[in-house]
Design a protein that fits this description.
Layout lengths: L1 H19 L3 E13 L4 E12 L4 E14 L4 E13 L5 E15 L4 E14 L5 H4 L2 E12 L6 E13 L9 E11 L4 E12 L5 E13 L1
Parallel strand pairs: 1-11
Antiparallel strand pairs: 1-2, 2-3, 3-4, 4-5, 5-6, 6-7, 7-8, 8-9, 9-10, 10-11
């Protein structure tokens, strides 16, 4: 079972790697926590560090906190705020403020978990290169996730696709960024889990830029 699971992930990653080789590379490390306040309300928090330039420089670190309200077993709503410290065009670090509102759906047919998320976000910079940087940046993000719950073994492979669409903007492009992700989730128990994933990130604005990302996350659920 272990060999089949890892072979499945490897086969998924080969087309992305071949398509995106000789591009930038980064590592994302995260710690995520969920705390159930009640049956319907949940507190979420995370800290993360992201690197770029062949993983030799820190691109961004951030802390994030929010609330999720579960309307039903299928539908939930959430909101969050992120405070980030990001490298800018002058090679120095400045704060960024970002907030999100999400609508989420989840279905569990058989051994699969299918998730969808529609997110509206606003980002404000504290570094102003020009007038465009002064204005807040708004985006719609649509994310689809498929998880296969491996029977009798705590490793679950998953696939994700996410697209970013600029709104309230004069830019002509409809799609600003696409992300393709394949990964493995290992659950130690109901509280502790780790995730290892590969992500191919293609940014279309202001010009096409690709980055291959290895992500490692530690998840806590209380």
């Amino acid at each position: 079972m272990i060999r089949r699971t890892f072979l499945f992930i490897l086969l998924l990653l080969v087309p992305f790697y071949a398509f995106s080789q000789d591009k930038d590379f980064g590592v994302w490390l995260s710690l995520n926590a969920e705390y159930g306040i009640s049956k319907k309300l949940e507190l979420d928090a995370s800290v993360e560090m992201r690197t770029f330039n062949q993983a030799s420089e820190i691109e961004q670190t951030f802390i994030e906190a929010g609330l999720t309200y579960k309307l039903t077993k299928v539908i939930s709503f959430s909101g969050a705020y992120r405070l980030a410290n990001s490298i800018e065009n002058d090679d120095d670090y400045y704060l960024r403020h970002k907030w999100f509102v999400d609508t989420r759906v989840k279905f569990e047919p058989g051994r699969f978990t299918l998730r969808g998320r529609l997110r509206f976000q606003e980002q404000r910079r504290t570094y102003f290169k020009n007038e465009e940087y002064v204005l807040p940046r708004h985006q719609l993000r649509m994310k689809l996730t498929t998880i296969y719950r491996t029977p009798s073994f705590p490793v679950n492979p998953y696939l994700e696709f996410e697209t970013f669409m600029p709104v309230f903007s004069d830019k002509s492009k409809v799609i600003g960024k696409n992300r393709f992700t394949a990964g493995l989730e290992y659950k130690f128990n109901k509280t502790h889990a780790v995730e290892l994933e590969y992500m191919f990130d293609r940014d279309y604005l202001p010009k096409i830029a690709d980055i291959n990302i290895i992500g490692l996350g530690y998840n806590l659920k209380f």
